[in-house]
Amino acid sequence: MSASQPTGAVSEVEAELRGGTYSKKVTEIEPGGVGFIPLEERRGRPISLLWIWASPNFEFATIFVGVLAVVGFNLTFSQAVVAIIVGTGLGSITHAVLSARGPSLGVPQMVLSRIGFGKLGNILPAGLNALTAGIGWFAVNSVSGAFALSALTHWSRTLCLVLIVAAQILIAFFGYNMLEFFEKYAFPVLIIVFVVACIVIFSKAHPGTAPHDPKGVNATAGFLLTLGAAFGYAAGWNPYASDYTRYFKPDTNRRMTGLWAGLGVFLSCVLLEIAGAAATTIPGIDPTGGGWFSDNPATIFVGPMPSWLGKITLLAIALGAIAANVINIYSGSISFLAVGINLPSNIRRAISALGFGLIGFILAIYGLKHVSTYENFLFVIAYWIGPWLGVYFTDQFLRRRHNVSGFLFDSKHNPWAGWVAMLVAGALSIWLFSNQQQYVGWFPKTYPSLGDIGFEVGFGLAVILYALFFFIGQSTSKAPTDEALVIPVNNA
Q1: What is d(CA 406, CA 393) in angstroms, rounded to the nearest whole number?
Q2: Confidence class of residue 7 from pLDDT cuts 50, 70 and 90?
Q3: Helices (H) and strands (E) in the chain, counts
């Protein structure tokens, strides 16, 4: 176990415990903030990660990634399938690796990030994740859920948005136990409904259909754009990974932890994204040519289904949006606290979740009339996550033979290499390689066939820069290379 009583001359740092006591009761509010989970409260099995990570992807936002591949990026169905599998596979693998580290160190993902970034430098990724998770993703998914519920009930979209948001905030406010309970029992409902819906879609699809616009985006660019979108969607969960494995016992099997987490993301995303791509090939599904980019594209997706199945699918889309957003609010609030903001309350995580839910609701009201921003949001996610992953994994590799658990709570551990590498790599990759409606970088302008490879460049550049900066820092700094974590007795 990494977080253990040290011996010899290794520096020691006392862990900050999460605070309070937390039983297994579903209706108990999770106390404290982002501290180390006491050993006596560790529980759970890796297989629970299957429904924790599959349920949130059973929603229309996932389907729309596949729709974009064909309608937006001009791929054939078979090309879209390959790009979806590759992009989602990459994001799922990184998610598995990140999840596997949670049980041994017992802290959230954005606290683990302090090892490479330091407590101050970690403000960059933790702050970005708080914004994109607790506000950005929350707004996107709330809108898609509200649209589906409105199409089903014919209630006003604003009313449906209020109902969706209220359910999400309530679950996230209670915390980990309530969240895991909800995802577990939503999972069988969602998987049954969406499997049946996908069977209907696949049975009516015409996979051999030619690209929608023969003069549109070329195949190479479309493939890279789709791969980036699929990766961005799957990797959007990466900064939350160990938030949901930190309650496991320290000796939990790392391989099984990573496997179930990765499979949860991969299987659900691939199924629904491919179904989205298949739906676009159904003859007559979008007679006007612009329905997929209308203000309620979920109704286009359920159009080919029998009426009863379409209604159930719309309800499942709304349920899936709730499943996604309880995770977004929960992890967004954790990232907010990981920045270093310490609210004076024993339920500061719950209070943060409430605050992020309310802010996200305000943004979602704007999103009711601006659905087209979803495509760009996917790439914004990939732009910052790519460099962060590059720094995180390079740091983990370079420190693989060292005891680094003490750096999690050492306020004096503030290396410059991590945040500088991430900032420079992110800025350069966006400046030179971004391919968005609002801004196109030099490379895609000059070589249109490149599509958008911003996340690939951001990741690779961050790896190179961090490795270089790390060795420079090691040669010029007298900071310790090893630091052990001492676990105090929980007197709460």
Answers
A1: 18
A2: very low
A3: 19, 2
Averaged pLDDT for residues 111-123: 97
Please give the torsion angle defined by the CA atoms of residues 52, 324, 235 and 332, in that order, rounded to the nearest 10 degrees.
-100
**CB atoms closer than 10 angstroms to residue 449:** 13
Cβ neighbors of 52 (< 8 A, separation 6 or more) are 179, 180, 183, 184, 244, 261, 264, 327
pLDDT-based confidence at residue 5 (cuts at 50, 70, 90): very low
Rounded distance, CA 353 to CA 348, Å?
A: 9
pLDDT tens for 55-73 read: 999 999 899 999 999 998 8
SS3 for 130-180 is HHHHHHHHHHHHHHHHHHHHHHHHCCCHHHHHHHHHHHHHHHHHHCHHHHH
Contact between 95 and 234 under an 8 Å Cβ cutoff? The reply is yes
Residues 329 and 192: their CA atoms lie apart, in Å, by 26
Side chain identity at residue 209, one-letter code? T
| Residue 245: φ, ψ to 5° | -120, -5
| Fold classification of 11-486 (topology level) | Hydantoin permease (1.10.4160)
User: Which residue matches tokens 């971004």?
Assistant: 434
